[in-house]
Design goal:
Structural class of chain B: mainly beta
Structural class of chain A: mainly beta
Largest sheet of chain B: 7 strands, mixed
Distance between the termini of chain B: 36 Å
Oligomer: heterodimer
Largest sheet of chain A: 6 strands, mixed
Distance between the termini of chain A: 41 Å
Number of strands of chain A: 12
Radius of gyration of chain B: 13 Å
Order of helices and strands of chain A: EEEEEEEEEEEE
Number of strands of chain B: 11
Strand content of chain A: over 45%
Helix content of chain B: under 10%
Shape of chain A: globular
Helix content of chain A: under 10%
Strand content of chain B: over 45%
Radius of gyration of chain A: 14 Å
Number of helices of chain A: 0
Largest interface: A-B, 24 and 28 residues
């Protein structure tokens, strides 16, 4: 069965610090997709990134970067020079290529990030 | 760019009442997903539709039903509401492209059952 573990429940940092959010996943499938979503205090779920299981290349987008390592089943997310606006709950999610089913997302419990001025 | 639209944004109901949540997917998206997020919880998959047919079902109570219409919008019907149904209900849409596509979420409907 699919499972996503975000061991860090809450993280608090001071503005301009770098912070890494951990995500470890379990799946028996060889083809799967990993996602990160951001949920700010306003409540919406904002898509950040999608990565498929065949693409282990790390990605950088501005202050955000992602490190995907199949060997450790991890897909970690780093925010460089954090800002107050980064304060949110961040969810890691997993989707398997379906065999007749839909591509539903299985979410981790989320990590609440608070960036203090 | 157009996003997923959900209505209403907030809904207050009494126990045992009925509620209907609506979802309008991004144009040209033909797959709709419903998720329920309890307070302090992660979103949990309820049900999905592809081309107006139910494609998968998660932990959705029998009191809930849903459908997707010819214009691809979807409605989640909830009957005999219970206090525990109070949650944020998200709709997401995607378009199948032979491989998993990204699910884009609407702003959610916050349901409060009193």
């Amino acid at each position: 069965a699919q499972k996503v573990t975000q061991a860090q429940t809450e993280i608090s940092v001071v503005e301009k610090e770098d912070v890494t959010l951990d995500c470890v996943y379990e799946t028996r499938d060889t083809t799967y997709y990993l996602f990160w979503y951001k949920q700010p205090p306003s409540g919406e779920l904002v898509f950040l990134i999608r990565r498929n299981s065949f693409d282990e290349q790390n990605e950088i987008s501005g202050r955000y970067s992602w490190n995907f390592q199949k060997s450790t089943s991890s897909f970690n997310f780093t925010i460089t020079a954090s800002q107050v606006v980064d304060s949110a709950v961040y969810f890691c999610a997993l989707s398997e290529t379906p065999q007749g089913g839909s591509e539903k997302l299985v979410f981790g419990k989320g990590t609440k990030l608070t960036v203090n001025p | 760019a157009a996003g997923v639209i959900q209505s209403p944004r907030h809904l207050i109901k009494e126990k045992r009442e009925t509620a209907t949540l609506k979802c309008y997917p991004i144009p040209r998206h033909d797959t709709v997903y419903w998720y329920q997020q309890g307070p302090g919880q992660d979103p949990q998959f309820l049900i999905s539709f592809y081309e107006k047919m139910q494609s998968d079902k998660g932990s959705i109570p029998d009191r809930f039903s849903a459908q997707q219409f010819s214009d691809y919008h979807s409605e989640l019907n909830m009957s005999s509401l219970e206090l525990g149904d109070s949650a944020l209900y998200f709709c997401a849409s995607s378009t199948p492209s032979g491989v998993t596509d990204t699910q884009y979420f609407g702003p959610g409907t916050r349901l409060t059952v009193l």
